[in-house]
């Protein structure tokens, strides 16, 4: 199985597959331990039943991971191809599901250029202003006070922003990849 890193296209799909596999294996182990104890003692009252019950805790935790990831789909394969072709000088991250204490905010793509972060989402329930405000707040708390964040739900508008940022980055030729990587790291830490 190919390991897909957070922030790359297809991450959500691969992580869901891994979570489903982990859940199935954990529950299979729980059932096997219970059946082993029952087959040896012909009673549910044995030590292996206790072990099986305790084993349900990690199995259920894995199941919660599956349930939380199911509603969120990975980005359309055409999106990374198009954005990647137009943003060679920019830092781009995909397949994010940013979580706060109140909301879950799926973000298809984020482009980072120096102190500017632009995001695109196809999520209909995502409040663009609240998402941008939350990301700004979290970046400030992580020592990036000057970063501006804007979110878009219109692809053409987002694509024109990406093209403009790419043109600026190509002309300036400033080495901001390390700073952009740190900003991307903070954003990815907020994501599932």
Walk me through the structure.
This protein is of the alpha+beta class and 192 residues long. Helices cover 56% and strands 15% of the residues. The chain has helices at 11-41, 47-69, 78-86, 128-141, 155-172, 177-189, and strands at 91-99, 104-113, 116-120, 148-152. Strand 1 and strand 2 form a beta hairpin. The longest helix is centred in the first third of the chain and has 31 residues, at 11-41. The two termini are 20 Å apart.
Q: Tell me the β content.
A: 15-25%
| Overall radius of gyration | 22 Å
Lateral arrangement of strands in the main beta sheet: 1-2-3-4
Number of helices: 6
- The helix/strand class is alpha+beta
List the helices and strands and how they pair.
Layout: H1 11-41, H2 47-69, H3 78-86, E1 91-99, E2 104-113, E3 116-120, H4 128-141, E4 148-152, H5 155-172, H6 177-189
Parallel strand pairs: 3-4
Antiparallel strand pairs: 1-2, 2-3
Brief digest:
56% of the residues lie in helices and 15% in strands.
Task: List its salient traits.
single chain; 192 residues; alpha+beta; 2 domains; four-stranded mixed beta sheet; elongated
